Every structure is written in C-alpha cells, then in structure tokens.
Amino acid sequence: MDHDPELELRQSDVMDPARAQAMQVTLGSEPKLQAGDALPPFFHQLYFWSPEPPEGLGRDGHPKVGGVIPDMGLPRRMWAGGRLAFHAPLRLGAQAERVTVCENVVRKEGRTGPLAFVTLRHEIWQGGTLCVSERQDLVYREDPDLGAPRPVPPLAAVDEEDAVERSFDATLLFRYSALTFNGHRIHYDQPYARAVEGYEGLVVHGPLLAQHLMLMAEAALGSLERFRFRATSPLMHHEVGTFCRKGRALWVRGPDGRLCMEAEA
Predict the structure, then answer these.
(1) Percentage of the chain with pLDDT > 90?
(2) Phi/psi of residue 126, each to 5°?
(3) Of 42, 169, 206, 248, which is least packed with CB atoms within 10 Å of its CB?
(4) Which residues make Cβ contacts (< 8 Å) with residue 81, sequence separation at least 6?
(5) Cα(216)–Cα(232) distance, integer angstroms
(6) Strands 8-14 and 76-86: what pairing?
(7) Distance (Å, rounded) from C-alpha 126 to C-alpha 48?
(8) For residue 4, what pLDDT band results from cuts at 50, 70 and 90?
(9) Is residue 220 exposed (0-12), middle (13-18) or buried (19+ Cβ within 10 Å)?
(10) For the segment 192-242, what is each residue's pLDDT rounded down to a tens digit?
(11) Please, are residues 188 and 215 in contact by the beta-carbon 8 Å criterion?
C-alpha cells in the first residue's frame, strides 16, 4: 500500500520525574525515581503525547489516522507487538526528542477479513545521543462478526523458572491510560468494548503487559539491551494473568492456559 516514507513526526518532551513516579505507583512500586535517574525500560511511553481536540479523534478514542499512519478504511486498531533497542539511558529531568516515521504498511486478507499491518519506527534522542530505537507493530481490521466463533489462541508454556500473578482492575487500566494519554475506549468503556469491538470486557493494554515483562526481565537479567514482544490473545480486566520467565524467554499466561503475550529479552 502506498505511504509516504519521508513523512515524519518530531516531538519534544521533558522527562518529568513526577510522571515516572506516578507510573511506579500505578505498577505497585515505591515512587523513588528522581531527576538525573535513568528512566526504567519502556517508561518513555509516558511522554511524547499527541493530544488532539475532540474532532480530531476517531470513534475508538484514538487520534484519527491520515498523518504518519495512512487511512486504510479499517476501524479497529490493536498494538500487536514491538521491538526495542536500548542504546543509552534516558535521564529524568532533561528534555528528549522523539522522531517517528511509518516504516512499512502491508494489507492482507485474513481469516476474518482484511487486515493492515503498520510498523512505526521511533527514535528517542537526548543530548545529541540516540537512547532508544523502537519499532511498533500495529494491526488494523474490520469490525468483528459478533456471532462468529472466536479464534482459538495458542496455549502457553508451563515450564517457567519465575512466575508472578497479576490482576488488572478498571481503575488500574484508567490510570495507565491517563499516564500514557491513551484514549482507546476498549480500556475504559466496557459497553463499547463489548458491543462494538466484541471483547468480553475491558482489555488490558498490551504495552502494560509488556512493561511488566520488561521489568521482570531487568530484575532477573540486569540492564536490557534489546527486547521484543508479540501479543497473541487479549487479557481481560477481570482475569488474572501469570507473568512467566525462563532464561531470556518471557510470556503472559491467561487463567485458562492460553498465551496472551510472548517476549524475549
């Protein structure tokens, strides 16, 4: 599909320690981060907001497509996965710049209808140094047939070395949405999530699952150089997820044994 590879979005932001502390509290940790400290992996999701007025939003609460992301006529958006490289620490209290380009767009026919795969490339710079490279994989698709049988997700492994159970209520999802300025209604508007997008409840943010996996990997393996993750099945707000690690492999297992996310550090 045609897209403009030269179209880029540049955003500047100060790595506010208060926002990072609020994220620590939201994740269940002590708010200890201060100016000058290194930003934990993936906490850059808290910055570089792209606020739009109400008329600039789509029905799902996301900004309307048509800029860096082309309009493909498909209403449902999902964050399918990502790949990150951590080159140098981002320091709290200092300004940083993020440069975003649409690296690739592919449209395909899937079992449930047309799909469009979009890859955004982000580079985050601070003080003239490239600190983080990120590729963000998005999927756009048609509205679901609510009467059709649901696809069967893969089963998760059960041979983990470490495991932590985590639950996600509606308040936690709201706070994470607020901190990341994510207006996607599937995370806080249950009637919309069920009736329009066909979910069984509120959807736990894929990046929130990945955030916990990254912190789990960092605690076990030390500072991360690279991390990749791929979402395979949504986790609902009323479910308990088990966060697992075996060596450098990580995953999230749903309460029924399904694989919700897989990752590698």
Answers:
(1) 78
(2) -145, 125
(3) 169
(4) 137, 206, 228, 229, 230, 231
(5) 19
(6) unpaired
(7) 13
(8) low
(9) middle
(10) 999 999 999 999 999 999 999 999 999 999 999 999 999 999 999 999 999
(11) no
Under CATH, which number does the domain 8-264 receive? 3.10.129.10
Q: What gap in Å lies between CA 239 and CA 37, rounded to an integer?
A: 34
Q: Walk across the sheet containing 162-167 and list its strands.
A: 8-14, 95-110, 113-126, 129-141, 76-86, 226-231, 259-264, 249-253, 240-246, 162-167
CA 134, CA 82: separation in Å to the nearest integer?
7
Output the furthest CA–CA distance in the chain (Å, rounded): 53
- Predicted model pTM: 0.93
Q: What is the pLDDT of residues 54-71, one digit of tens each?
A: 998 988 888 888 888 888
Q: Which of 115, 125, 93 is nearest to 16 (CA)?
A: 93
Name which of 27, 70, 53 is nearest 180 in CA terms. Answer: 27
What the block records as the tokens of 245 is 């690690």
Return the number of other C-beta atoms located less than 10 Å from residue 60's C-beta.
Answer: 18
The structure tokens listed for 146 are 């609510």
- Name the residue with tokens 């996310």: 261
- Strands 240-246 vs 95-110: parallel, antiparallel or unpaired: unpaired
Q: Are 75 and 97 spatial neighbours (Cβ–Cβ below 8 Å)?
A: no
For tokens 């943010």, what's the residue? 205
pLDDT in tens, 14-54: 999 999 999 999 999 999 999 999 999 999 999 999 888 99
| Contacts (Cβ under 8 Å, ≥6 apart) of 59 | 75, 196
